[in-house]
Automatic annotation (TrEMBL):
Domain ABC transporter positions: 9-242
Organism from which the protein derives: Rhizobium lusitanum
Claim: Nucleotide-binding is one of the keywords in the record: yes
UniProt key word rRNA-binding: no
Name the record gives this protein: NitT/TauT family transport system ATP-binding protein
Length: 263
């Protein structure tokens, strides 16, 4: 099968095996997936099922062993050179000696934007994540949730259409996470980004996604792909509705099926 041109990310029979001293680790095995423009796709599964590896292959931080993958119709390497994506890591990964605005400016400096353009983009992205007024603060002066929003602003600063987010809210308490989930959905709608989002949380995956990819380990593979039937307008209360609980149930079943396979 060939990759679909309209897909932002298209994977066919994608495999990645790490060679380790203990022998090969099959991190991704025959992954078939299409992420379309404007999708919000969550990847959910137990530790070690290849979620981070998959994002890293998209980002050209790891090379596939076999199969096909395209990003915006290009090889991951060409997509990286074209700055096709922004990446948000599990920890905010902000430089403590740089202010928030200087942290966001860093990739822009590297890309050679002039000072005026940098300032414009910093102001725009801080506004998108509701951090206007915090540009002169240092990361340690912000709460964990605010730091993570600042790292999202940094990933948005060069306005790539694709945002890769690896458990961005995993270390935050549930109340902060709920709030950030709501904000992220609004941001996604306002910006028309395509988002690939890794999470361990079933409610988070169901609340955010247009598509949920359930994965299972040893070897890392996709066990279910669920197209969400929820409306795009999603107040937090939607999590109590039968429709939401039904999707959550299917995710849980998919996770369980993957688990029993392993035993
Ligand atoms: P997840 O993000 O779903 O927890 P990862 O993609 O990080 O899973 O890892 C998938 C599998 O590959 C795991 O078994 C992990 O130990 C292994 N792995 C990840 N990175 C490397 C690496 N650089 N070298 C060797 N093995 C790795
Ligand atoms: Mg991971």
């Amino acid at each position: 099968m060939t990759s679909s041109a309209s897909s932002v990310v298209s994977a066919r029979n994608l495999c990645l095996t790490y060679d380790t001293n203990d022998g090969p680790v099959h991190a991704l095995s025959n992954v078939d997936l299409d992420v379309r423009k404007g999708d919000f796709v969550s990847f959910i599964g137990p530790s070690g099922c290849g979620k981070t590896t998959f994002l890293r292959v998209i980002a050209d931080l790891e090379r596939k062993s076999s199969g096909d993958i395209t990003v915006n119709g290009m090889s991951p390497e060409d997509a990286r050179k074209a700055r096709a994506y922004g990446y948000v890591f599990q920890a905010a990964a902000l430089y403590p000696w740089r202010t928030i605005e200087k942290n966001i400016a860093l990739p822009l400096e590297i890309m050679g934007y002039d000072k005026a353009e940098q300032a414009k983009r910093i102001a725009q992205t801080l506004e998108l994540v509701n951090l206007s007024g915090f540009e002169k603060k240092f990361p340690w002066q912000l709460s964990g949730g605010m730091q993570q929003r600042a790292s999202i602003a940094r990933a948005l600063a060069f306005d790539a259409d694709l945002l890769l987010m690896d458990e961005p809210f995993g270390a935050l308490d549930e109340i902060v996470r709920d709030h950030l989930n709501e904000q992220l959905l609004k941001l996604w709608k306002r910006t028309n980004k395509t988002i690939c989002f890794v999470t361990h949380s079933i409610p988070e995956a169901v609340y955010l996604s247009t598509k949920i990819v359930v994965m299972s380990p040893r070897p890392g593979r996709v066990t279910d792909i669920i197209e969400s039937t929820l409306p795009t307008e999603r107040p937090l209360g939607i999590r109590e509705t039968p429709e939401f609980l039904e999707i959550a149930h299917r995710v849980r079943e998919g996770l369980r099926a993957g688990h029993s396979y392993e035993e």
